[in-house]
Specification:
This protein is α/β, with parallel strands linked by helices and 237 residues long. It has two domains: 143 residues, CBS-domain (Roll), CATH 3.10.580.10; 66 residues, Histidine-containing Protein, Chain: A (2-Layer Sandwich), CATH 3.30.1340.30. Helices cover 35% and strands 17% of the residues. Strand 5 and strand 6 form a beta hairpin.
Length: 237
């Protein structure tokens, strides 16, 4: 899926000259945590989130530095902070370097942007004009709307094992030898050693995701839970 498939099109926006107090009341009234700032042509010029409003003189939450540290802080930085903590208009407090996407941006890239930039929403633009927004809740709704494909019960055991081993071979966390997987009547048996319970869970999920698998049986030893072999030769994968 792409941004255009999940984005909210009825986007709440404000203008650069919107009073900050009005922005705050809008966020509270709509139950949202951020709002794009657009100019008269509909171009995104900034974004205001709750994080942009944490440091306010009215609340006494502006940054405080000792005299020595303040002396070494550039005047431009100090002036910018003053504007953000005392500013009365949206343009005073908004984040100007806004990360945007277009309708065709894959959701995987949207998720990467959110994670890397520590942001909760990505405006979607078309020819520089705002057409929608993708928030974390949009991604969750898309996830909730997905339905697993029905699994066929007529898949050959050998094919199941082949598909599972192919999936494990593509995963950097998997180091299991082939004899760790046995498939009988659609039931996958996992044998051998894993380093952590998370690795075991990953193996189980990989097996459960193969079409035709009826169940997964775990016979593995988790080394983080067992600091030594339980019996001679148990380290053989």
């Amino acid at each position: 899926m792409n941004a255009g498939d999940v984005m909210t099109t009825d986007v709440v926006t404000v203008g650069p000259e919107t009073p900050v107090l009005q922005v705050v009341k809008l966020l509270l009234a709509r139950g949202i945590s951020g709002v794009p700032v657009v100019d008269d042509a509909g171009r995104v010029v900034g974004l205001i989130s709750e994080g942009d409003l944490l440091r306010r003189a009215e609340l006494g939450t502006q940054k405080r530095r000792g005299a020595w540290l303040e002396f070494f802080t550039g005047t431009a930085t100090l002036a910018e902070e003053y504007v953000r903590t005392h500013g009365t208009l949206a343009r005073d407090v908004m984040t100007r370097a806004v990360v945007c996407a277009d309708r065709a941006t894959p959701l995987a890239e949207i998720a990467d942007l959110m994670e890397q930039k520590h942001i909760k929403r990505v405006p979607v633009v078309d020819a520089d004009r705002l057409v929608g927004i993708v928030s974390r809740s949009n991604l969750l709704r898309a996830f909730a709307s997905t339905a697993p494909e029905p699994k066929s019960g007529n898949v050959d055991d050998g094919k199941i094992r082949e598909v599972l081993l192919g999936e494990l071979a593509r995963q950097p966390w998997s180091r299991r030898a082939e004899n760790s997987v046995v498939v009988t009547d659609g039931v996958v048996h996992l044998w051998g050693l894993v380093t952590t319970s998370e690795e075991l869970r990953a193996l189980q999920l990989a097996a459960e995701g193969v079409p035709g698998v009826r169940a997964v049986k775990n016979h593995m030893i988790v080394l983080s839970e067992e600091p030594y072999p339980l019996f001679p030769g148990s380290f053989v994968g």
